[in-house]
Amino acid sequence: MKNVTDSFVSLGHWPSAGSFGFNTDILATNPINLSVVLGVLIYFGKGVLNDLLDNRKQRILSTIRNSEELRRGAIEQLERARARLRKVEIEADEYRKNGYSEIEREKVILINATSDSLEQLENFKNETLHFEQQRAINQVRQRVFQQALQGALGTLNNCLNSELHFRTIRANIGILGAMEEITD
Protein backbone atom coordinates (compact mmCIF):
# COMPACT_ATOMS: atom_id res chain seq x y z
CA MET A 1 0.00 0.00 0.00
CA LYS A 2 2.84 2.27 0.66
CA ASN A 3 3.93 2.00 -3.00
CA VAL A 4 0.57 3.29 -4.30
CA THR A 5 0.49 6.30 -2.03
CA ASP A 6 4.09 7.02 -2.84
CA SER A 7 3.35 7.08 -6.53
CA PHE A 8 0.59 9.70 -6.02
CA VAL A 9 2.79 11.79 -3.86
CA SER A 10 5.57 11.59 -6.36
CA LEU A 11 3.38 12.98 -9.17
CA GLY A 12 3.45 16.37 -7.66
CA HIS A 13 7.26 16.36 -7.96
CA TRP A 14 7.60 15.80 -11.72
CA PRO A 15 9.68 18.43 -13.24
CA SER A 16 7.94 18.34 -16.66
CA ALA A 17 4.57 19.00 -15.15
CA GLY A 18 3.93 22.67 -14.92
CA SER A 19 1.28 24.62 -13.29
CA PHE A 20 -2.14 24.80 -14.80
CA GLY A 21 -3.54 28.28 -15.40
CA PHE A 22 -5.32 30.65 -17.72
CA ASN A 23 -3.72 32.66 -20.41
CA THR A 24 -5.44 36.00 -20.36
CA ASP A 25 -4.03 37.16 -23.68
CA ILE A 26 -7.17 36.81 -25.73
CA LEU A 27 -5.64 37.89 -28.97
CA ALA A 28 -2.94 35.27 -28.80
CA THR A 29 -4.71 32.15 -27.68
CA ASN A 30 -8.52 32.15 -27.93
CA PRO A 31 -9.09 33.05 -31.61
CA ILE A 32 -6.56 30.50 -32.73
CA ASN A 33 -8.01 27.78 -30.50
CA LEU A 34 -11.54 28.64 -31.50
CA SER A 35 -10.73 28.68 -35.20
CA VAL A 36 -9.03 25.30 -34.92
CA VAL A 37 -11.94 23.79 -32.98
CA LEU A 38 -14.49 25.28 -35.36
CA GLY A 39 -12.52 24.13 -38.39
CA VAL A 40 -12.34 20.58 -37.06
CA LEU A 41 -16.05 20.62 -36.17
CA ILE A 42 -17.02 21.96 -39.57
CA TYR A 43 -14.79 19.57 -41.43
CA PHE A 44 -15.81 16.43 -39.54
CA GLY A 45 -19.31 17.44 -38.35
CA LYS A 46 -20.52 18.88 -41.63
CA GLY A 47 -21.50 15.47 -43.07
CA VAL A 48 -23.15 14.31 -39.87
CA LEU A 49 -24.98 17.60 -39.46
CA ASN A 50 -26.06 17.55 -43.11
CA ASP A 51 -27.30 13.96 -42.72
CA LEU A 52 -29.21 14.87 -39.54
CA LEU A 53 -30.72 17.94 -41.18
CA ASP A 54 -31.59 15.99 -44.35
CA ASN A 55 -33.23 13.24 -42.31
CA ARG A 56 -35.16 15.82 -40.32
CA LYS A 57 -36.14 17.62 -43.52
CA GLN A 58 -37.33 14.34 -45.10
CA ARG A 59 -39.36 13.47 -42.00
CA ILE A 60 -40.93 16.93 -41.98
CA LEU A 61 -41.70 16.73 -45.71
CA SER A 62 -43.18 13.22 -45.39
CA THR A 63 -45.25 14.40 -42.43
CA ILE A 64 -46.47 17.35 -44.50
CA ARG A 65 -47.27 15.04 -47.44
CA ASN A 66 -49.12 12.65 -45.13
CA SER A 67 -50.98 15.56 -43.60
CA GLU A 68 -51.91 16.85 -47.06
CA GLU A 69 -53.11 13.39 -48.11
CA LEU A 70 -55.09 13.06 -44.90
CA ARG A 71 -56.53 16.55 -45.44
CA ARG A 72 -57.52 15.66 -49.03
CA GLY A 73 -59.05 12.41 -47.81
CA ALA A 74 -60.94 14.25 -45.08
CA ILE A 75 -62.17 16.84 -47.62
CA GLU A 76 -63.33 14.01 -49.95
CA GLN A 77 -65.09 12.28 -47.08
CA LEU A 78 -66.69 15.57 -46.09
CA GLU A 79 -67.90 16.15 -49.65
CA ARG A 80 -69.26 12.59 -49.87
CA ALA A 81 -70.98 13.05 -46.51
CA ARG A 82 -72.47 16.36 -47.67
CA ALA A 83 -73.66 14.73 -50.90
CA ARG A 84 -75.22 11.87 -48.91
CA LEU A 85 -76.81 14.40 -46.57
CA ARG A 86 -78.31 16.32 -49.51
CA LYS A 87 -79.55 13.05 -51.02
CA VAL A 88 -81.08 11.95 -47.71
CA GLU A 89 -82.70 15.37 -47.23
CA ILE A 90 -84.20 15.18 -50.73
CA GLU A 91 -85.44 11.63 -50.06
CA ALA A 92 -86.84 12.73 -46.69
CA ASP A 93 -88.70 15.60 -48.39
CA GLU A 94 -90.05 13.20 -51.02
CA TYR A 95 -91.12 10.73 -48.31
CA ARG A 96 -92.70 13.56 -46.38
CA LYS A 97 -94.56 14.82 -49.47
CA ASN A 98 -95.51 11.30 -50.54
CA GLY A 99 -96.50 10.48 -46.99
CA TYR A 100 -98.74 13.54 -46.76
CA SER A 101 -100.29 12.84 -50.16
CA GLU A 102 -100.69 9.16 -49.23
CA ILE A 103 -102.33 10.18 -45.96
CA GLU A 104 -104.66 12.54 -47.83
CA ARG A 105 -105.47 9.82 -50.38
CA GLU A 106 -106.15 7.30 -47.59
CA LYS A 107 -108.26 9.90 -45.81
CA VAL A 108 -110.37 10.50 -48.95
CA ILE A 109 -110.70 6.75 -49.52
CA LEU A 110 -111.74 6.23 -45.90
CA ILE A 111 -114.25 9.08 -46.04
CA ASN A 112 -115.69 7.73 -49.28
CA ALA A 113 -115.88 4.19 -47.89
CA THR A 114 -117.54 5.45 -44.72
CA SER A 115 -119.99 7.51 -46.76
CA ASP A 116 -120.79 4.48 -48.93
CA SER A 117 -121.24 2.33 -45.83
CA LEU A 118 -123.55 4.91 -44.27
CA GLU A 119 -125.55 5.13 -47.50
CA GLN A 120 -125.84 1.34 -47.66
CA LEU A 121 -126.90 1.24 -44.01
CA GLU A 122 -129.49 3.95 -44.68
CA ASN A 123 -130.81 1.99 -47.69
CA PHE A 124 -130.88 -1.21 -45.65
CA LYS A 125 -132.70 0.60 -42.85
CA ASN A 126 -135.26 2.01 -45.31
CA GLU A 127 -135.75 -1.42 -46.92
CA THR A 128 -136.12 -3.02 -43.50
CA LEU A 129 -138.66 -0.37 -42.47
CA HIS A 130 -140.59 -0.85 -45.73
CA PHE A 131 -140.51 -4.63 -45.32
CA GLU A 132 -141.70 -4.39 -41.72
CA GLN A 133 -144.46 -1.98 -42.74
CA GLN A 134 -145.60 -4.34 -45.50
CA ARG A 135 -145.52 -7.27 -43.10
CA ALA A 136 -147.50 -5.32 -40.51
CA ILE A 137 -150.03 -4.28 -43.19
CA ASN A 138 -150.31 -7.88 -44.39
CA GLN A 139 -150.81 -9.12 -40.83
CA VAL A 140 -153.50 -6.49 -40.27
CA ARG A 141 -155.16 -7.46 -43.57
CA GLN A 142 -155.08 -11.14 -42.63
CA ARG A 143 -156.63 -10.41 -39.24
CA VAL A 144 -159.27 -8.15 -40.79
CA PHE A 145 -159.99 -10.79 -43.45
CA GLN A 146 -160.18 -13.54 -40.82
CA GLN A 147 -162.43 -11.45 -38.63
CA ALA A 148 -164.60 -10.51 -41.63
CA LEU A 149 -164.73 -14.12 -42.75
CA GLN A 150 -165.59 -15.29 -39.26
CA GLY A 151 -168.23 -12.58 -39.02
CA ALA A 152 -169.68 -13.53 -42.44
CA LEU A 153 -169.64 -17.23 -41.58
CA GLY A 154 -171.31 -16.50 -38.29
CA THR A 155 -173.91 -14.36 -40.03
CA LEU A 156 -174.44 -17.00 -42.73
CA ASN A 157 -174.70 -19.79 -40.18
CA ASN A 158 -177.27 -17.81 -38.21
CA CYS A 159 -179.27 -16.73 -41.24
CA LEU A 160 -179.14 -19.85 -43.31
CA ASN A 161 -181.40 -22.68 -42.66
CA SER A 162 -180.92 -26.07 -44.23
CA GLU A 163 -183.06 -25.49 -47.27
CA LEU A 164 -181.39 -22.21 -48.14
CA HIS A 165 -178.12 -23.91 -47.60
CA PHE A 166 -178.98 -26.70 -50.06
CA ARG A 167 -180.18 -24.21 -52.63
CA THR A 168 -176.92 -22.22 -52.41
CA ILE A 169 -174.93 -25.41 -52.81
CA ARG A 170 -177.01 -26.45 -55.86
CA ALA A 171 -176.61 -23.02 -57.40
CA ASN A 172 -172.87 -23.14 -56.93
CA ILE A 173 -172.73 -26.65 -58.42
CA GLY A 174 -174.72 -25.37 -61.40
CA ILE A 175 -172.30 -22.48 -61.87
CA LEU A 176 -169.37 -24.88 -61.71
CA GLY A 177 -171.00 -27.20 -64.23
CA ALA A 178 -171.65 -24.32 -66.63
CA MET A 179 -168.04 -23.24 -66.30
CA GLU A 180 -166.94 -26.76 -67.06
CA GLU A 181 -169.02 -26.87 -70.26
CA ILE A 182 -167.61 -23.52 -71.37
CA THR A 183 -164.00 -24.67 -70.93
CA ASP A 184 -164.59 -27.90 -72.91
Your description of this structure?
This protein is mainly alpha-helical and 184 residues long. The chain is built from three helices and no strands. It starts with a helix and ends with a helix.
Helix content: over 70%
Note the overall shape: rod-shaped
Mean pLDDT across the residues is: 81
Order of helices and strands: HHH
* CA radius of gyration: 68 Å
For the terminal residues, how far apart are their CA atoms? 182 Å
Q: How many strands, what sense, and barrel or not for the largest sheet?
A: none
Number of helices: 3
Structural class: mainly alpha
Number of strands: 0
**pLDDT under 50 segments (min length 5)?**
4-16
Beta percentage is under 5%
Task: Break the fold down into its secondary structure elements and pairings.
Blueprint: H1 2-11, H2 26-159, H3 162-183
Coiled coil: 64-98
Keywords: ATP synthesis, CF(0), Chloroplast, Coiled coil, Hydrogen ion transport, Ion transport, Membrane, Plastid, Thylakoid, Transmembrane, Transmembrane helix, Transport
Subcellular location: Membrane; Plastid, Chloroplast thylakoid membrane
Provide key terms for this protein.
transmembrane; about 180 residues; coiled coil; thylakoid; transport; rod-shaped; 3 helices
Write a concise synopsis of the structure shown:
With 184 residues, the protein is mostly helical. It has helices spanning 2-11, 26-159, 162-183.
